[in-house]
Structures are given as structure tokens and as C-alpha cells.
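If it is no trouble, might I ask you for a protein's amino acid sequence along with its C-alpha cells?
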Amino acid sequence: MSSVLIALVDVGAGVQLEEALQRVGFTARWRADAATTIVATDADVVVVDADALGVELVTTVNAWRGSAGTPGVIAIGQGAVAREQAPLAKVTLLTTTASIGTLTNAITDAARLRLTNAMSWANARTALGLPPADPELRAMAVMLLTSRSMDLEVPRTALRWHVASYVTLTPLADELRADRLLTVPELAVIDLCDGTQTLQTVLKRANNAPLAARLLWLLTSIKATTLTPSVADVTTPARRLLAELLNHMKARSQRLAGSTFYDVLEITPLADYPDIEAAYELQSRRFAPQLLANYDLGPLAATVHTQWDVVEKARSVLVDIAARGRYHDWLRENHGRLSTVWAIDPHIAQQGIDAFARGQASLGAGDVHKAMSELAAACRLHPGHPDYEANLAWARFRVEVARGGDKFTCADRERAHVENLLFGCRPWPRALVALALLCAVRGDAESSRWYLSQALSVEPQMPAALQLLQRLGVRTPTARPA
């Protein structure tokens, strides 16, 4: 049977577990020093103390798995932190009252599948029954050949923790392709790994799921692919768009919590029927299920229809005069417990509109100090309005630079503020132009063009956006989803 190292803090619990495991045939040993330090061991399995480790469980489990011998790891604990951290550590968590039979099964599985704890070069070589070797293409060729007939349980178990992770190729994958080390079916799997699809989706779309699982396990082990919970990078338009959509969806959930129907559509009580329909159409450009169905949103896909149902409900209530009146009565009764940016007094909303118009006029005239004053007034009247806040950020940047502030530092700060402000919102063209200006000042022409194309997808003839695009050397803008 397997050998077990018991790394529990409590001496009584450690000794009792040691004796219990020895009685059923395990070679078990409790070591006090192992409870707080990674020690050299030839044990097949290490039992860690999840309650004592708390938030350090992930780090400690990974350290044990990366130690010599690559032992399997199980955890014992029952506190809230232990239950929270165990899935992050990808470790089986047993309660302190678990039966000896349950412990035996967990230890046996951990020992049998210990090489699936981490996808690494050394683990892959061992799992394939190959001797140690340096990571070079010749050794990789042998590993690829051997993996094609390996037991499916190892890759399947190793990958199961990463089904919602995005699969992205590294430059090594191009080397494997260039050296013709991949078969035609494997190349078809590689073509799916553009960083915009989760592992679960890639395996579903592959013509041969077992082949794909073995291949992706090996490619990840040799670092030809990466598996990441979010989009790995935004160096391609497709990945950048997906990353933005994911950020919008996450922020959207937070914005909708405890909000009003006006916040859902991002309109004030001044809005009439055309305004409501226009707002609904702009929401659909970013959050409609028909649009989002084209993207692999991972776990967030489950929230798409729920969020959109709220948009539909908001529209149906606010376009119906009687229903809108009843909703206003409800708002007055519940206003104190609601979080709102948009359900403000119509007179104040109009004052904000007027102040913003004066601020825009002052910006156009080159009077940035007056512009900042007027835009700040608009933000005080209607805090959180994307157009107001973004244009105030642009005016504030210009004023601070005029006063001697560092241009790049100011641009970075204001850009981060505006980007964070716009996540979870429908597209706001004037806010996007202000953001594009901040990007252009910083020298990030690609991001500037990105945001301008979103603004022009809503207002194709927007003068400020077209002029900035021309300055950036773009004659015909490439339309991007808003």
C-alpha cells in the first residue's frame, strides 16, 4: 500500500491518524515539522492541515506537489476558510470525522493520480514511463508519440480542474507545427486554441475528444499551451474583445444588484419613448443573448439570459405609462434601500445636461479651466454619468498638465478611472472618444483606435472620433462590436 506523510499541527490528531492508517496497512508517519515546512519525503501522499493553513493552503499544496517525488496531497479540515480554499488548491478536502474507509479511498486515489496534480515536464515524462530528459524538440517528439496511446485517465484527471480555463498557444506550439511533429487531427485541435475558447469548448468541438485531451495535457505539460482562468493576453482583436466582454459581464452583475430600471437602461426619468428605445438598442449591442452567444464566456454564460431578462423587464415597464407610474410609486417607497445612479430628480438631471453642454462648448473653445468647472458641476449634479465623468477626466488631465503635471502619469491615472467607469455600461460614444484621447496622449494608438471604432459603431459620423482617427493615420475605421 501507499506510504503517507501526515502533516497535521495537532499532535494528538496526527498520532491517532498515524495509528489508524497503520492498522489498515499503510506506511504512515506523523511529523511535527512537516505541518509548517515542506520537508524531503519519499511518501506517496501527504495529508495537510487545511484549518491550520487557512489561506496558505493553495501555496502549501502547490509546494508539496512541486517537491521531489511529486507526492499526492489530500487535506483535512472543516472550517469555512478550508472549504473555500480547497477548490482553489485543487485538493480533496475531508472532514476531521471522515471514516477510515473514506480516508483509505482518498489516499489511494491521491497516490494513483499524483502525477495529475500538476502538468509539468517532469510529471509528464514519469506518467509516460519515459526517463528524465532535457526539454528539447527531440524529447518532445517522443513524448507526443507515446502520449497518443497512453491511458486516458491521467490527462482526463489532470484537465478536469481547468475545464473553464482559456486555452492559448505559446511560441513552442509553432515550433512543433513547423517541425511537423503534429498529425493532421492534432493540428485541427491546435487551430481551436486561439485563446478565446475554454478547454471545455475545445474538447467539445474537437472531432476526437480523447485525442484532444491527451494532446492538450501534453502541450500544457511542456508549455506549448497555457490554461488560464481569464483571457491570457489581448494581443489579438478577438482576445481583446472577449476580455472586454468578460469584464463588462462581471461589472454588469455588480451594477444591477439593487439597482432601478433606470439604471438597467442607463437613462434618467426625463427619458421619453424614443430615448427608452434608443437605450434598449444600445444595451443590445453589448449584452443581447444573440450577440453574446457568439463568444465563449465560460461560467459567465449562465448569467447572460438572466441579465437580459432584466433589460426586457425595464423596457416593458418604462414604455408603459401606467406601469411606469406604479413603478415610480414603488421607487418612492423603496428609494432608501436602492443603489442608483440614474433614478434622479428630473430637474437635477436637466441641470446636469445643461452643465455638460456648457463644458463641451468650453472644451471646443479651448478654455479647459472653464470646461473642467462646468463638467465638474455636471458630475456633482449627476455623479457616475459616463459622458460627464469621462469628459471631466479629459479636462482634468489637460488642466493638470498645463500646471506642470507629468503627462504620462496623469494620462494613466485618468485612463484607468474612465475604463473602470465604463465597464458594465452600454456604449457611450462621447465617453469613448474621451478615453481614446487619453490613450492617444499616452502613445497607445492601438487602444485609441479600438475605442474610437466602438464610438463610431454607434455614431458613424461623429466628427471628433473621425478627426482623431485621421490624426492616428486611419482613413477608414474598422468597425468593432460596441
